[in-house]
Amino acid sequence: MNAIGHGITAIVLKKAFPEANLGWLLVSTEAVEIAFVGFNIAGIERTEIAVPFKSVMDMHLVHMPWSHSVLAGLCFAALFYAAAIYFTKNPRIGLALALGVFSHTLLDLAVHAPDMALAPLIDGPMLGTGLYGSHPQWAFAAEIFYALFCWWIAQGNWKLFALIVIGNLVSITSYFPNLEGSENLLAENPAIFPYFVLGQIVIFLSLIWLFGRRPRGAKAVPA
User: Fold this and answer.
1) Can you tell me whether residue 141 is helix, strand or coil?
2) Interatomic CA distance for residues 214 and 222, integer angstroms
3) Carries keyword Transmembrane (predicted)?
4) How many distinct structural domains can be found in the chain?
5) pTM for this structure?
6) Whether 183 contacts 53, CB under 8 Å
7) CB 139 within 8 A of CB 90
8) pLDDT tens figures, 170-222
9) Which of 193, 169, 19, 152 has the alpha carbon at shortest distance from 201?
10) How many CA atoms lie within 13 A of 138 on its CB side?
């Protein structure tokens, strides 16, 4: 799932756990992806991009058990929970952050090709619905529907709504093979891929934080 889809989960968690810091909730939803970026840069995990790159069907996450396996997601969630308990002494904040972390794994399972392992170093079934590998258009529809559903649940404002729509439309060429975009730049320069992913995370999480702090209809509090 794209960065907006993951990050928008934090808005729902903020509504359910108002005592949790929105910034840390946003980070929790992309902790798995941040680890993925680091592991790709270090060569621990590997991504291959076919040339020409027409859609996400041509992106092959061939080895990522340390960031995107089910066990890895649970371990990252446990780490965030433990850190929250240590620093805040509040189990609800720990639970909110843990849910944010593991939501990433669950959402990826809903759209990924079968490329997610149960655990590192274990041979077994690879998980994922396969939408990215066979029906990326349906994955695009699912992602924008999920993001808008979260916006509705959290009573997000109209700026956040616009961010969701525009942010998803910006990446539409990655989901529809007949639409040409700039994706071939990644295929021709695969070394920049993890930095591209990191850039998306920083930009979209920052925008969600900026536009998502005030629910729809809320009025600014005078200074």
Assistant:
1) helix
2) 14
3) yes
4) 1
5) 0.93
6) yes
7) no
8) 999 999 988 887 777 887 888 899 999 999 999 999 999 999 987 776 655 44
9) 193
10) 11
User: Which one, of 2, 50, 52, lies nearest residue 30 by Cα?
Assistant: 2
- Residue 217: inside a domain, yes or no? no
Which region, left, alpha or beta, applies to residue 47 given φ > 0 means left and ψ of -120 to 50 means alpha? beta
In a domain? residue 222: no
42 domain residue, yes or no: yes
Query: Could you report the per-residue pLDDT of 1-55, keeping only the tens digit for each?
Result: 899 999 999 999 999 999 999 999 999 999 999 999 999 999 999 999 988 888 8
> Tens digit of pLDDT for each residue in 83-123?
999 999 999 999 999 999 999 999 999 999 999 999 999 88
Question: 180-189 long-range contacts, Cβ below 8 Å, gap at least 24?
Answer: 183/53, 183/54, 183/55, 184/51, 184/52, 184/53, 186/49, 186/53, 187/49, 187/50, 187/51, 187/52, 187/53, 187/58, 188/51
Q: What is the DSSP letter of 48?
A: E
Token pair 């270090």 in the structure block, residue: 42
Looking at 17-126, list the stretches that DSSP marks H as alpha helix, in order from N- to C-terminal side: 22-29, 31-42, 65-68, 70-88, 91-111
Query: For residue 94, what are the domain limits?
Result: 3-212
